[in-house]
Every structure is written in structure tokens, then in C-alpha cells.
Amino acid sequence: MKILAGLSPMAGFTDMPFRVICTELGVDYTVREMISAAAICFHDKKTFELAEISPLEAPCAIQIFGHDPAQMAYAADYILSNMTSSRKPAAIDINMGCPVRKIVTSGDGSALMRTPDTAQKVTKAVEAVTSKYNVPLWVKIRSGWDKDSLNAPEFAQMLADCGVSRITVHGRTREQMYAPSSDNGIIAKVRKAVPREITVIGNGDINSYEDACRMIKETECDGIAVGRASLGNPWIFKELSLGEKIEVTTEDRINMALRLTSDIVKRKGELQGIRESRGRAAYLIRGIRNSSRVRDELNHAESFEAFKNILLEFSSNCEK
Ligand SMILES: Cc1cc2nc3c(=O)[nH]c(=O)nc-3n(C[C@H](O)[C@H](O)[C@H](O)COP(=O)(O)O)c2cc1C
């Protein structure tokens, strides 16, 4: 069974180099990590440049966060009017799921699930912009704020009434952050609560093709989005597109760590690129024998050349 599979946005990880890799491995769509609407309103050039989409990518949505309707509308307009057609985003996605304290104390991210009136105003304001540009509007939500306020189904209905075409539901509350396990039951309730023409994407704890099949069977959602599992295993998208388990060798994983690092360095420069790649390469080699020693070595590498040599040596030692 072919499954509609997306890359869930992850700040610090779902940048262009990683999205291109996921595209090559068969991801159907991606969502770029969240951008602050306020930063866009202040014309923070760097923020905007990082929102760039490559023609080599699968359709990519740009995610924004904020709680001020006018600011959110301005940010959506700025993004859509400043992107040429080759880099036009697949959608604008509003983040109503981020649980991070700094974000929710400003009333952004999952705090919007506690203030549905504000969430509605934000959604309507952004929808007025996206419809002008004929670009779909998506929203990402959680199951609710905490176990006593599991309002995702009613909240999703409100979003559907505002003209949202896709709702991604992470089956955890804000209080739960990222553990314990995600609840498919609430995703099923959202699917039932909104009209069939709204695409409902289930998210949370998809680590394999089997998990994705279970999510679809239990919730009748239209597709799934993979977050953390993709960081060490981007091949999950190949598995999801082929509908079968695929074999990934140690060499594949080390080569992928090298490829990702090289692409990040090309895009962000050697200093920043190496700094960012340390943790990301570590995900890809995790579980290979001696990988924790190699991770420590990578943490001390100061140049791409040094980084590369560590990984090449690791690869040749693995072969022995
Ligand atoms: C490091 C990290 C950064 C994240 N950044 C974002 C983000 O920018 N926007 C968003 O909507 N979700 C963000 N998320 C949440 C993920 O998209 C996803 O919903 C969550 O990890 C659950 O899916 P998973 O169990 O497959 O990881 C982030 C998660 C992690 C671990």
C-alpha cells in the first residue's frame, strides 16, 4: 500500500539539505521548520533567506508561528509575494502545536489551542492571504493542551470552517511534550470531526512502514508525517513509498552522514556547517559499533576535511 508520507517540521533539522535527501528517498512532501511571523515583519533577511526552497525538493510548505492575526497575515503575504514561482511553497502551515515554554508563554504554538478565538482570528487572517495567492493553508495541532482539555476534534472543526485544507495532528498534548507514546485515538476523532475533503495527517511515533499502516488503519487518516525517526533513518521514506522493508548498510549510513555534512557546509559555510552537522551526523551513525567514540571525535573536528577523514576511517574500520 502506498502511503502519503511527509517530513514533519523539526527546528534545526529540516533544512534544505535534509529535505533534498528525503526527496531523493521518496518523501511526498515536507514542511520547513517554523519561522517567526514577528521576525518576518521586522524584515529579518536571514530568516527569509533560510526559507528558500530548492527546485530539487518535493513540495515544501513553509511553517509560520505567532498569535497576532495581522502579523501572521503580513508574514504569509511577505513569504508568498517574495518567492518566485520555482520556489513557491506548497502551502503555508500554521504552527499550533509547538510546546516549547518560550513559544507558549508568548501565546504562540500550542498555546493557541487554549485560545480558540485567537486561533480562529489568526487562521482567518492567514486564509485571506493564502486564498489570494491560490496557495493551500495547512495547520499543525496537538491533541490538546493537557489531558483535561483534549479539544483537537472541535478545534479541527473550527479550522475546517476557516478554510484550512490540511490538518496535521500530533497525538500528544502540550503537557506531554514528546513522551509517552502518541495517541492514535484522538487522530481518529479528528478524522471523523472534519469533512472528508480536508486532508488529515497523523503524526507521532512513526518509526516504520508497519507503524504507518497501523496509524492509517486505526485512525483512517489520509497520510502520515514522520518526525524524529527520519533523523537517523531518512530511508524510512523509501520504505513508505515502496511499501516494504529495505536494507540499509553501515556504509550507506556513514556515507549519508558525510553527504549531509557536505551539503550543509556548502550551504551554511564551514564553521557553522560543521557545528550543525555534529549532532546530525551522530543520528545517522547511531547504533553502529564504536559510533559513540566517533561522535566524540566529530565533536572536536574543526574543519570539513577533519570531519570527512573521521567518517572515512570509521567506514574503513567497519568494513574490516
Ligand atoms: C527537535 C525538534 C524540533 C521540532 N520543531 C518543530 C517545528 O518547528 N514545527 C512543528 O510543527 N513541529 C516541530 N517539532 C515536532 C515534530 O514535527 C513532530 O510533530 C513530533 O516530533 C512528533 O513526531 P515524531 O514522533 O515522529 O517525532 C519538532 C520536534 C523536534 C524533536
Shape: globular
Which class best fits the helix and strand makeup? alpha/beta
H and E string: EHEHHEHEHHEHEHEHEHHHHHH
Task: State which percent range the strand residues make up.
Answer: 15-25%
What's the main sheet like? 8 strands, parallel, barrel
Using the coordinates above, name the CATH class of the largest domain. Alpha Beta
Query: What are the low-pLDDT stretches, counting only 5+ consecutive residues below 50?
Result: none
Q: Number of helical segments? A: 15
CATH architecture classification name of the largest domain: Alpha-Beta Barrel
Q: Rg to the nearest angstrom?
A: 20 Å
Mean pLDDT: 95
Look up the CATH topology of the largest domain. Answer: TIM Barrel
The tally of domains stands at 2
The CA-CA distance between the termini, in Å, is 38 Å
The CATH H-level homologous superfamily of the largest domain: Aldolase class I
Give the % helix: 40-55%
